From TrEMBL:
Keywords: Lyase
EC category name: lyase
Organism, scientific name: Streptomyces machairae
EC number, as in UniProt: 4.1.3.3, 4.2.1.41, 4.3.3.7
Pfam families recorded: DHDPS
The name this protein goes by in its record: Dihydrodipicolinate synthase family protein
Domain of life: Bacteria
PANTHER family: DIHYDRODIPICOLINATE SYNTHASE
Keyword match Nucleotide-binding: no
InterPro entries linked: Aldolase_TIM, DapA-like
GO MF entries: 4-hydroxy-tetrahydrodipicolinate synthase activity; 5-dehydro-4-deoxyglucarate dehydratase activity; N-acetylneuraminate lyase activity
The family this protein is said to belong to: Belongs to the DapA family.
């Protein structure tokens, strides 16, 4: 196992800027990737759920990765390679490898409630692409739970090197460390950042740095560095926003916060619909409060 682990640190699951006709604005996306790195983030994760990969054409998915690599370099880019078929996910992993990326993020099979044998087969197939794979455990959306025992098995068979943990169950961190001490735990939900950082997380696949990179990176560094006084204060200030990362409307929420701070968040593609007025008011007020507190 190499010491070079490009999935460590703060990797932002990037929101995707769309123009008024809902076409991908690659110029704005390149600028956004560069801005995130300039503001302390370690890299980006294009083609994740926050990047609306499910509603992109294959050509768009390909160009999004190429745009990110051209903007900040392949070692800083960890594309999502989720697909309904294992062969398709492997092709996305090969495309990322050939574009110069050094790791990819992979959901389990999510077209149906896959059993353990299917999950093992899926990750083994994608691992054949020869690029390190970070598993993404999101049992809420996929209905497939990568429990610690299964993750340890996947790691033991050389299929994964890390896991983005989005179950919300912070107790799993300790069991995972016992079963697979060399498997890197990555924070997968913004609103359990402090708890998972204290439990030994090595990175954060993050949502809200899209809008507030400096303060959220400061929060992460303080948390993993053991500066609890700083971390607890920032966590309390930011949590009214961070919790939206775990809600159904997380893409719309983060894009709205981007708009409020002067970035380009903009619209989402259907079937996502605009926020309800009360949701928008809550997010806007929380974002404005963060700006007023100097967190933008």
């Amino acid at each position: 196992m190499t010491d070079h682990r490009p999935w460590r640190g703060v990797l932002v699951a990037t929101a995707l800027p769309l123009d008024d006709d809902l076409r991908v604005d690659h110029g704005k996306y390149a600028e956004h990737c560069a801005w995130l790195v300039e503001n302390g983030c370690d890299g980006v994760v294009p083609n994740g759920s926050l990047g609306e990969y499910q509603v992109l054409t294959p050509e768009e998915r390909t160009k999004v990765v190429q745009t990110a690599v051209a903007a900040i370099g392949g070692s800083r880019v960890m594309p999502g390679v989720a697909a309904y078929g294992s062969a398709e996910s492997r092709r996305w992993a090969e495309q990322a490898r050939d574009a110069g990326c050094e790791s990819v993020m992979l959901l389990p099979p999510n077209a149906y409630r896959a059993d353990e044998r299917s999950v093992l087969s899926h990750y083994a197939e994608v691992a054949k692409a020869g690029i390190p794979v970070v598993a993404y455990n999101n049992p809420i959306d996929t209905k497939v739970d990568l429990v610690p025992e299964l993750l340890a098995k996947l790691h033991g068979e050389g299929c994964i090197q890390a896991v983005k943990e989005f179950s919300g169950d912070v107790r799993r961190a300790y069991q995972l460390a016992e079963l697979a001490p060399e498997l890197d735990l990555l924070i997968g939900a913004d609103d359990v950042l402090l708890e998972l950082a204290l439990a030994g997380a090595k990175g954060w696949v993050a949502g809200y740095p899209n809008a507030l990179p400096r303060s959220t990176v400061e929060l992460y560094r303080a948390a993993v560095g053991g500066d609890l006084a700083t971390a607890k204060q920032l966590y309390a200030q930011l949590h009214p926003l961070l919790r939206w990362d775990s809600k159904v409307e997380f893409v719309q929420a983060i894009k709205l916060s981007m708009d409020v701070v002067g970035r380009h968040g903009g619209r989402c593609r259907p079937p996502r619909v605009p926020l309800l007025p009360e949701q928008e008011a809550t997010i806007r007020a929380a974002t404005e409060k963060a700006v007023a507190a100097g967190l933008a």
